[in-house]
Design goal:
A four-stranded antiparallel β-sheet has the order 4-3-6-7, with no helix packed on it. Strands 1-2-5 form a three-stranded antiparallel β-sheet, covered by helices on one side. The longest helix is centred in the last third of the chain and has 25 residues, at about 150-170. Strand 3 and strand 4 form a beta hairpin. By secondary structure, it is of the alpha+beta class. The chain is built from three helices and seven strands; from the N terminus they run αβββββββαα. The protein has helices at about 1-10, 120-145, 150-170; strands at about 20-30, 30-35, 50-55, 55-60, 70, 80-85, 90-95.
């Protein structure tokens, strides 16, 4: 009985994911920015972050003390991969599809005498991206969390399999 209790406690504990690494990245305003973090939200500082396309390195830098990084947007859009790796070998990857995006040109300033407002499509995209970024970050963080439903569901599967095994061995006798 003690062995079963110990096994269940070890199965429920979260120590196996303590060193898992996650990364979040987003294109905004002519740059690719994001952060590297561990499950639970703790930021990973001073880790090498690499921007790649088709297996070739485009840029490389280290995350800052808060786990953040920023790369200039490459001249051509397309599919990019942002990767980070810790010293103990854990890696995280984030795919970005920047098809049709180009580095942002400086936005002309609007003078006080101008009455009409010209809304550029790229400026609109960047304004929307700035508003959507916190929501994407929250969704990414929620997807990485272990929820109580997951734990209870896992225990239910274990109990169900144990019940099936007991039924099978009980019928054999």
């Amino acid at each position: 009985m003690r062995g079963l209790l110990l096994t269940l406690l070890l199965a429920v504990s979260g120590s196996a994911q303590a060193h898992r690494l996650n990364i979040f990245a987003m294109s905004d305003g002519g740059q690719i920015s994001g952060y590297v973090y561990f499950p639970g939200g703790k930021r990973a500082a001073e880790l090498p972050v690499v921007l790649m396309r088709d297996g070739q390195t485009l840029a490389e830098q280290s995350s800052d003390a808060e786990g953040q990084f920023s790369f200039p947007l490459p001249p051509e859009g397309g599919a990019l991969l942002v990767s980070a790796q810790s010293a103990d070998g854990h890696a995280a990857h984030f795919s970005l599809d920047l098809e049709g995006e180009t580095p942002a040109a400086p936005t002309p300033s609007v003078s006080d005498t101008t009455c009409s407002t010209h809304l550029d499509a790229k400026a609109l995209e960047h304004a929307i991206a700035a508003q959507v970024r916190p929501l994407r970050e929250q969704l990414d963080a929620l997807a990485q969390q272990r929820r109580w439903q997951d734990v209870i569901g896992g225990l239910g599967y274990i109990a169900g399999l144990f019940g099936l095994a007991m039924f099978y061995f009980g019928r054999r006798r």
